[in-house]
User: Fold this.
Amino acid sequence: MSGHSAFKLRQINNYWLSKEPPVLSNVNYRKIKYILFDGTYFHKDGCLIVFIDVQTKTSFYYDFIG
Assistant:
């Protein structure tokens, strides 16, 4: 589906698993008006979820759920 090999998908998966979720205490939620939610599923391996502030085009939360 993605056009990437199984090896490349594992590399992407391992990259995101190695990152710590961002600290949420520094996010001013009162300023966030529109949120874009994206989930990328890795078949049986889990899902990467990302929350993006649409106005600033910055992600303010992500996590891998496996």
Remarks:
- DSSP finds one helix and three strands in the chain.
- The longest strand covers residues 58-65.
